[in-house]
Amino acid sequence: MLTVKGVVLMQRPCGEQDRFIDILTAECGMLEVLVKGADKLNSKTGSATQLFAYSEFCLGDRKKGVRILNSVTPISVFYGLRRSVSAVALASYFSQCLQYAVMPRSDVPEILRLMLNCLYFLSEEKMEQAHLKAIFELRLASLIGFMPNVLMCKRCYTYLPEELSFCVENGCFYCKECRPESTPEMQTWIDMPIGTLSAIRFIVLSDLERIFFFRLGEEEKVLLYQFAEMFLQYHIDRRFPALDYYKTLTDQNIPIEC
What we know:
Number of domains: 2
Shape: elongated
CATH architecture of the largest domain: Up-down Bundle
CATH superfamily of the largest domain: Recombination protein O, C-terminal domain
């Protein structure tokens, strides 16, 4: 018997009335669970096992490698997400990232907290979606081992350059004077002002409770959003269908200028 708290990231049918769900937990990473009778009209597990629900799951012992749900109690189902198609699309993108990046039997409490915070802000419409997306991407990249080197110029160790170029590939930045000469590989570079770098520093280095609250000018925000998406996708080497769909809903197919 295993009791865990987790958020439902994916559902898929199994036969006529059963359903598999993938849940993200703090102690066990990703878990695949079989929910018997999930699609029955009188099912008692409906709301607690729906997509993006955060619940307490009581799971039976493994049978043929699969855990079966014994009982479940909802903690938060984030009803507000259903008010916005783009919010659901963005939450789905977060889920697909986590399913790809988090392994079973992993100890990932910080990642679970990140996802729950993002679902809360999406549900309550308390934050611009593009802002939330960038925070999720950079913080997740840092938590799974790809934290960018944001402390100083790679060559001269300047902490506060007026202008800089960030290399997505090697995860570090160079001030204007130290940037290498242009090469065909420069497509993974983004020029940015110090304000954008300061925001990146804040997201990857601050306590989780603080990383959502900062302000940027419009140009600095656009560069942050572009960098965050490019950085995560480059390092996990994966594109996600939910992100493409989210972009069609929000008209965010903005080319990245390198």
